[in-house]
Amino acid sequence: MKKKYFFVLGLVIVLTQTAFSQDMNEKIKIDNPSKNIIQLMAVDSVTYYFMPSEPTLYEYDQRGNVTLEKVFGFYKYENVFNDDSLLITSRYYLWDYDSIDFKLHEIMDFTYNENNIISQYQMNINIDNVWYPNTKTNYTYDINGKLSLETTYFYDIDSSDWFLSRRTEYIYNTNDLLSLSNTYIYEYDGSETLESKTEYTYDQNNNKTLMQFESYSLGTLSYGLRSNYTYDNNLLIEEVMESYSTYTGSVWNFTNKQEYFYNTNNRLESVKYYLYNNIWNLHNIDSMFYDNYFNQVHVKTYMYYDEEWLCRLRNEKILDYNYTQEQVLNPKKSPLNEERYFDNSTHMLRKLVIAHNSNPSSQTTWTIDTNTYHYSLKNITLSLPDNFVYDGYDFVVYPNPSNEDSYIILNGVESQIQISVYDIHSKLILRLVEKPINGRVETKIDVSNLSKGVYMINFKDGKYSQTKKLIVN
User: Fold this and answer.
1) Cα 407 from chain centroid?
2) Do 288 and 393 belong together in one domain?
3) Backbone angles phi, psi at 25, to 5 degrees
4) How far apart are CA 363 and CA 370, in angstroms?
5) Which of the pair, 82 or 280, is modelled with greater confidence?
6) What is the mean pLDDT of residues 38-46?
């Protein structure tokens, strides 16, 4: 249980490691035509309220990838990346109290296809000081780059062979949105049985309106969960949840409901939580508060207690406003497509304060826990294949920052140009080739699918090259 807790906690922190730069004009130092050093603020350690003497420590490579995450007395991860900043190997160690040191417990290897998308994941484990393969998963993609099939294998030590244990197929609608996933399990004789399926439906604006999960036993539906979503001007305003079980009459029953309310800036202002018992009963209310930069800095949870709505939980983020979103180095997604976001603040998170009140009717029973984030300046190497050369062209990127579409306008060009978009790790995200009309190029790029962070847009016409920064928020 302790391993699982700290694994999740550690993963959250690694996924939330953020780095911040100062003014780009001062920070980017050209060492040679293709290498630049950017100074970034990165998380060095996090001190937790329940173990202040054993903080989580981090180390980075030259490109800002986390190569070491360590909690003394619990666990550590050692990560190896390739030149494209893709995670190749992750070694997981558990603290061994007998030797008073870390002992290697698992090795996870990742393989990628030509598009730098994960194609295989394999875990090896240590049993009685002998290393064995344990599980591996192969990933297959369709012509649009969408995940179409996952096949998972289990390694049998006795026969020294791999056995297909599970496969999941993914089906998409005409808008490339996931509409159905089916998971099948396999017996040793190779027989296939449907284990579960999940269906999704969407409205005309591609908002998810239904998610229904069904679990099967011997081909018969035994358990299920589904949620219906309602929107107003593309804002989620209600989610109604139901469950199905053979133990409760083999029918779908209401279980929970959540209502969402927004302020004039379309920021989530409150959430009401209901339980169903023949009627909907309101049992919790969350209230959200924002600073002048629209950061959600305070959340209060209220419960109905002694005929009053009283606060029983408070979460507070204490931010350093000297570092803003346009100075943020965006953490990458993991190879298994897990989001690496824990905090969506546009400024540096310094402290996360969690306060519990076991007796809401009293204001003297609060327990306040504070996690503290420690940062230092790092030198990150940004290697782009094109030179940074200012040539006087009128090069405009707008809107910037953006979270939907950004337009690139170039005036004064006469020949065909190449436009390239790189992330902060110098990985190529997009490349376009455009021809000018009357000395002008105007093109649009969709950034809605890009993770938040800093990107570089470079144009090159054979003789000149120029680069601008784009912020995705």
Assistant:
1) 26
2) no
3) -65, -30
4) 18
5) 280
6) 81
CA dihedral 143, 146, 149, 152 (to 10 degrees): 130
Coarse DSSP helix, strand, coil percentages of the chain, rounded to the nearest 5 percent: 5, 65, 30
CA distance 227 to 349: 33
- Rounded CA separation 462/454 (Å): 25
Task: Report which of 420, 401, 424 is spatially closest to residue 465, judged by C-alpha positions.
Answer: 420
Closest CA to 119 of 81, 156, 83, 88: 88
**Same-domain check for residues 308 and 433:** no
Q: Which of 388, 379, 391, 369 is nearest to 467 (CA)?
A: 388
Tally the domains of the chain.
2
Amino acid 442: pLDDT: 85
Asked if the model's pLDDT at residue 157 lies above 80, the reply is yes
For residues 156 and 80, what is the distance between their CA atoms, to the nearest angstrom? Answer: 28
Last residue of a domain, one of 382, 399, 416: 382
Stretch 324-346: mean pLDDT: 61
Residue 370: closest CA among 48, 45, 13: 48
Does residue 292 share a domain with residue 364? yes
Provide CB contacts within 8 A for 78, sequence distance 6+: 67, 68, 90, 91, 93
Element housing 182 (H / E): strand 178-186
d(CA 208, CA 261): 18
Return the SS3 of 453. Answer: strand
What one-character DSSP code corresponds to residue 15? H
- Cβ distance 107 to 93 under 8 Å? no
Q: Report the CATH number at residue 401.
A: 2.60.40.3080
pLDDT digits (tens, 9 = 90+) for 78-125: 999 988 788 999 999 999 888 889 999 999 999 999 878 899 999 999
End residue of a domain, out of 340, 361, 382:
382
Domain of residue 444, residue span: 389-472
Whether the CB-CB separation of 123 and 131 falls below 8 Å is answered with no
Residues 335 and 217 in one domain: yes
Which string of b and e fits 168-188 if b means at least 16 CB within 10 Å?
bbbebeeeeebbebbbbbbee
Flag whether the pTM goes above 0.70: yes
CA 409 vs CA 393, 422, 428: distances in Å = 10, 18, 20
